[in-house]
Amino acid sequence: MAEYKQAHIPQRVCVALLAMLASLTGCAKDQSLAPPVNSEQVIVRLKVPSELKAETMKVMYRSTLCTFTDHSAYGEPYQRDGYQHMEIEPAQQGRSDVYEAKLSKDGGGDCQWRLSNVTFGVSYREPERFGDNVRFGAGGGVVVIFDDNASPRGGANIKVDGDLAIKESYYPWVSEAFIGGHRKTINLAGEGDIYWMYKAPEAREVYFEPVLHSRFVVHSEQPKVHKKGLYSSFTYPDGSTVADGHSQPAFRRLETIRLAAEKK
């Protein structure tokens, strides 16, 4: 009898463990995105100049049901909303210069995902036209936030009610760096930072039209050595050179140069 009990103790333990695991599995939620076919849509459209291309859109969904544990700077645990990323390629509309993507507001699934933000923009189609080994750097980006959370790029500094229409000027900016290895990039210099940051919770249509002034190229060279008083120099389309400690071109100066040239 004692031998019988000893032989079956491991089996009873295994049965209990299996039951516990089955219970836990039954409570777990499928965290995959499953947008319903009738979900309300946000349409994002870009009007893309021929020298540029539409970048892959990065879309984030959040859930208050499927949370996870994170830790503060002091190591204290706390719960955060779950999130999912997906990438969408904007589709060219016929043979036009308009590209479009449709984003479901409702991400569906057991977690009841909701659209949180989208990051998109444009870059140079052929950066090598500016020289050998030239790569695209930065600029021409937009972030639109649809809820009360920050995006991976941070929070919004512009709040918009209703739909969102963006039309911004950009200038080609060829930047050359030397410290740490020679690098040359072509960037899109605009009035704002690399990304325009918007909060538009009610938007159902988002339109972005970057206007590229391709004839007005600004060049910059970073110092070749670290030395106090040495700054990046900027050579503007009118031939003037400025080295005043700024890290990017002066947008207003570029606008003034262009407008003066177009009046001639």
Question: What is the average of the pLDDT values?
Answer: 89
Number of helices: 2
Task: Classify the secondary structure makeup into a structural class.
Answer: mainly beta
Tell me the series of helices and strands, N- to C-terminal.
Answer: HEEEEEEEEEEEEEEEEEEH
Share of helical residues = 10-25%
Largest sheet descriptor: 10 strands, mixed
Gross morphology = globular
Name the beta content range: 35-45%
Give the number of DSSP strands: 18
Distance between the termini: 108 Å
Low-confidence stretches: 1-27
User: How many discrete structural domains?
Assistant: 1
Taking Cα atoms only, what radius of gyration do you get, to the nearest Å?
26 Å
Give structural attributes:
ten-stranded mixed sheet; disordered N terminus; 2 helices; single chain; 264 residues
Would you kindly provide a written description of the structure presented here, covering whatever features stand out?
By secondary structure, this protein is mainly β. Mean pLDDT is 89; it is low at 1-27. β5 (91-92) and β6 form a beta hairpin. It has helices spanning 2-27, 251-263, and strands at residues 41-47, 52-54, 57-71, 77-88, 91-92, 98-104, 106-108, 113-124, 135-136, 141-145, 158-159, 164-177, 183-189, 195-199, 205-212, 218-221, 233-235, 241-242. Strands 1, 5, 6, 9, 12, 13, 15, 16, 17 and 18 form a ten-stranded mixed β-sheet that branches. Strands 2, 3, 4, 7, 8, 10, 11 and 14 form an eight-stranded mixed β-sheet that branches.
